[in-house]
UniProtKB/TrEMBL annotation:
<feature type="signal peptide">
    <location>
        <begin position="1"/>
        <end position="20"/>
    </location>
</feature>
<dbReference type="InterPro" id="IPR050902">
    <property type="entry name" value="ABC_Transporter_SBP"/>
</dbReference>
<keyword id="KW-0732">Signal</keyword>
<dbReference type="InterPro" id="IPR002491">
    <property type="entry name" value="ABC_transptr_periplasmic_BD"/>
</dbReference>
<protein>
    <submittedName>
        <fullName>ABC transporter substrate-binding protein</fullName>
    </submittedName>
</protein>
<comment type="similarity">
    <text>Belongs to the bacterial solute-binding protein 8 family.</text>
</comment>
<feature type="domain" description="Fe/B12 periplasmic-binding">
    <location>
        <begin position="50"/>
        <end position="330"/>
    </location>
</feature>
<dbReference type="Pfam" id="PF01497">
    <property type="entry name" value="Peripla_BP_2"/>
</dbReference>
């Protein structure tokens, strides 16, 4: 099944095969490039040659664009699923795994990075002093994952545009920065077609869906600006937390019970397995009368499916197929 999924993802990514270089990346002597990132214009004086990334989705955005030759390394925990049979395995084979934790200034300096591509809560963090501002003082430019852009509603709330628009914006920006505009445009066009094909077959009665990431006292979930919101919507469901103006955030169990989801989607990663999460949900007394729990309608997607990444369109297709089954058996 994983091999079939990898093949499907590969075809969606590029007609020339995974890891193929459709076009050469720009010459390092190319004039400065100005992009809009998180609502601000940012100018890059040169094309980066030693990019360091944080986390799996961000890393695979670079791989999907065939930019592994522009990377000095990546950091991410080893709890993000099997990476041996993925569309961009060549990238993982070629690029150095710098750390199984979040990036640090030491990682970046040791790698002689000339660009750090990360996101708020995907590497960038105020507490550890690993911020775009701190790296700028070291002379290291940054690019912020658009899904994670802070929106100003609170000090930490994130999300400035619909999640898939964030994915397309990042692919387009990276394509411009690295001189692979045609490859970026092809990816975006193919992803939009795949998403539209799934959305066109949405069930007549859209199931209510709750995304469960983790947490027992309080669940960690997706508001309207994290990738699961649009994954659920385009798959044919309605995210019960769509009214939460944030990306990944914590809510109360009482709000889950009140909204009574028909389906729960588990985000699979970390020390707690998907099966352990499933057992908890089915046995947690406050959820006893929730429709998804009563009917055991629980669907599992990998972490990388549910953060901004080139795997989002495939996740939409798989969840869409499940939601259509749910609708048929109402």
């Amino acid at each position: 099944m994983r091999k079939l999924l990898a093949a499907a993802l590969c075809l969606a990514a590029t007609a020339t095969g995974c890891g193929a270089h459709v076009e050469s990346s720009a010459d390092p002597k190319t004039p400065a490039v100005t992009l809009t990132n998180c609502g601000k214009e940012v100018t890059y004086d040169k094309v980066p040659k030693r990019v360091v990334t944080n986390d799996v989705g961000i890393t695979e955005l670079m791989f999907a664009l065939g930019l592994e030759n522009r990377m000095a390394g990546f950091a991410m925990p080893d709890d993000k699923g099997d990476l041996t049979d993925v569309p961009w395995k060549d990238g993982y084979d070629k690029v150095k795994w710098l750390s199984k934790d979040q990036l640090t200034k030491e990682n970046v300096l040791d790698a002689r990075a000339d660009l750090v591509f990360a996101g708020w809560n995907y590497g960038f963090r105020d507490g550890g002093g690993f911020t775009p501002e701190a790296l700028k003082k070291l002379g290291i430019p940054t690019y912020i994952l658009t899904e994670s852009c802070r929106n100003g509603r609170t000090k930490t709330s994130r999300g400035i545009m619909p999640p898939l628009d964030a994915l397309y914006a990042d692919l387009t920006n990276l394509g411009t920065l690295f001189g692979v505009e045609k490859r970026a445009a092809t990816l975006v066009a193919d992803f939009k077609k795949q998403v539209a094909a799934t959305a066109a077959h949405a069930p007549a009665h859209r199931p209510k869906v709750f995304l469960y990431d983790s947490g027992q006292d309080q669940p960690f979930t997706s508001g309207r600006y994290a990738a699961p919101d649009e994954i659920i919507t385009k798959a044919g469901g309605n995210n019960v937390m769509h009214d939460v103006d944030d990306s990944w955030t914590t809510v109360g169990w009482e709000s889950v019970v009140e909204r009574n989801p028909d389906v729960i989607v588990i985000c699979d990663y970390g020390d707690v397995s998907a099966e352990q999460k499933r057992k908890f949900l089915l046995s947690y007394a406050p959820l006893h009368d929730v429709s998804a729990v009563k009917h055991k309608r629980i669907f599992v997607l990998d972490y990388v499916d549910l953060v901004e990444s080139p795997r989002n369109p495939s996740a939409i297709a798989r969840l869409g197929a499940y939601l259509r089954t749910v609708d048929r058996h109402r």
